[in-house]
Amino acid sequence: MSNIVIYSTKPVPEYEKILSAVDDADVRSVDISSIKDYALINPSLMIITDIEQAKDALMTNKFPCPILFFGPVRRDITVRAEGFDFITNPSNTDELIVRVNALLRIKAIKDKLEKVSTTDDLTGLHNRKYLQERLEEEISRSKRYGTKLSCILFDIDFFKVVNDMYGYEWGDILLRNIANKLDAMVRKEDILTRYGDEEFLLVLPNTSEENAFLFGERFRREVEKMEFIPAGEEEAHRVTVSGGISTYPCMTDVEEDANTVIRYAEHALYNAKHRGKNKIIQFSQMNLEM
Q1: Topology (CATH) of 128-285
Q2: Are 193 and 201 in contact (CB under 8 A)?
């Protein structure tokens, strides 16, 4: 559903009524002074009835949606948005709906392109491009508020054996099963990514190393219990995962970024593999000389 928000100096029920004709759209009007809190409403389209009142907000924000302004074209105003347009006569019902629909289509197309560019085709999870951007954001937030941030890098043990024994089609099925199981366990604020061929990286904001370990162990046991029976086989093929955990800040007196935190999780994962697989290892508990 599209979320159309009209920012105005006074209630505008007449425009709410007109725009209610837009398919699958929720329309509301709010005071223009609340434009700085636009993220709380998450609009698909913003309509601004008085550009002068919104001028300061337009200069200091980059809006993730299109904007339709009521009034004549203003070339002296800086607008940072997904697209924008002006309508000099918003009382022209047909023209207003046409312009709103056009801006909503722009938003839908850009959202689709963004999803395609940041999504793994096979599993439907986020890809590494998305991970890099979001992990840097979460590390900055963790640094600003003094909170913990944990990463778990999971790897399917002996995955090559599955491909060799049953074919790549069954390898893909296993990857999707693991991805779905993991996706069902994460919180809304967590960031789940297909990191490599058989690797999944989970970012857990505001999560201590201890709690990340509890999550990792719970997932490891769930995978250990799953039944994976390729076609033509009478018995289930045993599946396990190994995992490595790093928690920001990882080490004192070291400048750490997204790549650093991931690298520490990789070290912990390799340690889990070295110790016989089907284990979750914390970077802080490793013997760093190994």
Answers
A1: Alpha-Beta Plaits (3.30.70)
A2: yes
CA–CA separation, 205 and 127 (whole Å): 18
Q: Find tokens 């991931």 and name the residue.
A: 262
3-class SS of residue 176: helix
As a whole number of angstroms, the distance between CA 95 and CA 161 comes to 62
User: What does the alpha-carbon distance between residue 7 and residue 21 come to, in Å, rounded to a whole number?
Assistant: 19
Q: Which of 138, 198, 209, 266 is catalytic?
A: 198
- Average pLDDT (103-128) is 90
- Classify strands 280-282 and 241-248 as parallel, antiparallel or unpaired: parallel
Superfamily holding 2-116: Response regulator (3.40.50.2300)
Q: Where in the chain is the domain with CATH 3.40.50.2300?
A: 2-116
Q: Is 235 a catalytic residue?
A: no
Here the tokens at position 22 are: 């837009």
Q: Evaluate if residue 288 carries a pLDDT over 60.
A: no
Summarised one tens digit per residue, pLDDT across range 160-194 is: 999 999 999 999 999 999 999 999 999 999 999 99
